[in-house]
Structure formats: C-alpha cells, structure tokens
Design brief:
Layout (H helix, E strand, L loop, with lengths): L1 E5 L6 H12 L5 E4 L10 H11 L2 E2 L3 H6 L10 H13 L2 H8 L4 E4 L2 E4 L15 H10 L4 E4 L6 E4 L13 E4 L13 E7 L4 E7 L3 H10 L4 H9 L2
Parallel strand pairs: 1-2, 2-3, 5-6, 6-8
Antiparallel strand pairs: 1-9, 4-5, 7-8, 9-10
Bound molecules: zinc ion.
C-alpha cells in the first residue's frame, strides 16, 4: 500500500491544492494528515473541507487543539495568536466539530501517525534532535512513526546513521510542512511511504506562494505570516 503523509497545512490552500494535485499522479492508496490543518494561514475552512474529502485518516495538531478550545490561546506565539483569533471566528461549526473528532494518535499499516510525538502526544514536544528522540523510540509500539510539528523534514533512526528505512529498527520520520516550511526551503514538503516495499520518500514541490501570501494580507493577518512563506522560515 502506498500512503501519502501530509502535515502542518496551516490553512494554506494553494499549497494543499498543489500537494493533492501531485499525489493524483503518484498511485496513492490513501492520504494521512498529521494535523495543524488550521492556524497562521487564511483559508482554514477550505483546507479542512479538502482534508475531509481526500484524507482517509487524520490526527489532531496543537493549532487545531487551540481552535476547538482544548488548548489555551497562550500556547501560541503573537502572530499565531492573532491568526487563531480570526480562525476561530471564521471556522464553520461543522468544521470545528470535525477537528474535535480527530484522535491524537493512530496506527495504520503497522505504522504510527501523530502530530508531535508518540510519547505523551498531548505535551506537543518538538522532536528536533536525536537526543530528544531517545525516550520516544522506547515509547513506540510500531517500528515506524510519522510526525510533523517542527515543519522540518527528516529521518531519525534508533541506530544513529541510518537514514533509509530497514526492518528491525525504529524510525521517526518527519514529513515536513505543506503550508509553512521552516528549513529555509520555501517548497512544500510531503512524504510517501510504501508499506509493501518498506520505502519512504520525501518530496519538495513548488506552489503559488504569492497567492497564499495575498490571502493572508487580504484578511489582515500579521504580515510576518506571509513574509515567512517566501523564506521558508
Ligand atoms: Zn504546525
């Protein structure tokens, strides 16, 4: 089975549309969304609706948790807070209910899917170093765990130095972000996992950044949120 994994869409509709268009041509059996569908960007309802139509599975992200009131606004930085106040005003009741229905973690095809970490997912830990991953490997029920949250794609193995999947070892795979990449590369990021071949590939794709930035400006969200899209930061 070929599974596409997308994360951290952050209400960036041009990026999500580009990603889904690409996946249409890549023999995908299903698409899993790792959360943070909303926050920062200006098209939250449109993005939720596309996820509902096209993703077979999805989990809750920390911005989604703020949007449904299960995490306080103070959890977010200043521009994030401003965008979230606006998001909470515009989200339809139906889409809010959908976010509230999402689990924190799920297992599918012998892999785990979670927004931040499989170890106490409700703590929203940023796994951004091999050091922080140590306890996490011990908590994994499956050999593979797909995460997002840092917006930086990468692969960590319990055995240092392994960057390609192999059976018998635990891997944490960060698929990067669709709507707000932060590794200095503004191209959207997504992953494709083949559970038959046990292979994983990360893809970086162009999308219409100007369009995403324009809708942030039109809705009077903080300008830093549009600028950072061009920088991939
Ligand atoms: Zn995020």
């Amino acid at each position: 089975m070929r599974i596409a994994i997308i994360s951290d869409i952050h209400a960036n509709l041009p990026a999500l549309t580009a990603a889904l268009g690409f996946l249409q041509h890549h023999q995908i059996d299903n698409i899993v969304c790792l959360g943070d569908i909303v926050g920062y960007g200006a098209q939250p309802n449109e993005c939720i609706e596309l996820v509902r139509q096209q993703c077979s599975h999805a989990v809750l992200g920390n911005h989604d948790a703020v949007a449904i009131g299960s995490l306080p606004l103070n959890h977010l930085n200043a521009p994030g807070k401003a965008a979230m106040r606006w998001t909470m005003e515009v989200l339809t009741k139906d889409n809010t209910q959908y976010l509230a229905s999402l689990p924190l973690l799920l297992e599918h095809e012998n892999a785990t899917f979670v927004h931040a970490s499989p170890f106490k997912p409700e703590f929203w830990t940023y796994i951004d170093s091999p050091f922080k991953a140590k306890d996490v490997f011990a908590a994994m029920n499956t050999e593979l765990c797909f995460i997002g949250h840092t917006h930086v794609p990468g692969i960590l193995c319990e055995k240092p130095g392994y960057f390609q999947l192999r059976k018998g070892f635990r891997f944490l795979i960060n698929v990067g972000s669709i709507g707000q990449p932060r590794d200095g590369n503004p191209k959207l990021s997504l992953g494709i996992f083949d559970s038959t071949d046990w292979t994983y590939e990360n893809y970086r794709l162009d999308y219409d950044i100007q369009r995403a930035a324009d809708s942030i400006t039109q809705n009077r969200l903080p300008s830093s949120l549009s600028r950072r899209l061009f920088q991939g930061m």
